[in-house]
Amino acid sequence: xxxxxxxxxSMPRSGSTLFQxxxxxxxxxYVTPTSGVLELLFGARMNFTNSPEFKAxxxxxxxxxxxxxxxxxxxxxxxxxxxKKYVLDKSRGWGVYRPFLSEVIEEPKIICMVRDLRSxxxxxxxxxxxxxxxxxxxxxxxxxxxxxVHKRIxxxxxxxxxxxxxxxxxFEINRLGYSDxxxxxxxxxxxxxxxxxxxxxxxxxxxxxxxxDFDNIEQITKEDDAVYGLTPDLHTIRKSxxxxxxxxxxxxxxxxxxxxxxxxxxxxxxxxxxx
Length: 275
Known about the structure:
Shape: globular
Structural class: alpha/beta
Radius of gyration: 20 Å
Strand order of the largest sheet: 2-3-1-4-5
Number of helices: 13
Largest sheet: 5 strands, parallel
Distance between the termini: 47 Å
Order of helices and strands: EHEHHHEHEHHHEHHHHH
Number of strands: 5
Low-confidence stretches: none
Mean pLDDT: 94
């Protein structure tokens, strides 16, 4: 039976899938790929908000019932698919929707993986270049959008795209003042100091530690990225925990790297990233 559900809400290309599979070495954990459980809660919330049947009854009672419905629904979902003690549910929305989640689960534990923003954008650009045989919607020659590195960066950091949306959510979390309720883990720190970072994570989750094998990480999570119109192997991980040398200046160019750092100073300051 599931005792606790934890949450991961991370930046794209920041090692979030890798982290799921590291934690999944712990036999007490069920770890997810990108999860749709938050979407189930959103659907329930929409109906709870708009259904006249709920509006016509005592508001306090209905809110109490809805909170219990959401909590028991999450636990019921996972109890049907695993008998492990802990669940780590991965969805990029958990962080910014923590106020909603905290109405359902008292003091929810949310982990957010981050990474140097230049490396995140460089990773996207390398994926784009690697998959030239597949159509990428970021590029449209008819409208001349996404046809250069500069234009692709502009698209990726726009709030309607994954990186821009994640940045906007992090900015909102920080502005609303509950950043201290979330555990931020830098991808670089996890690669270079895995034992220290995992100890910090277990302390945050308030559960017993486990000895992980960082040289033999088995891929537990399975995710068909083609469903999203993305490269099929986008969430395939390496077996060992290591980090390639930073090549964002070579991939993006110094001018773009400087532009990213100048325009997102709050991000570089918040997570202590330097030149």
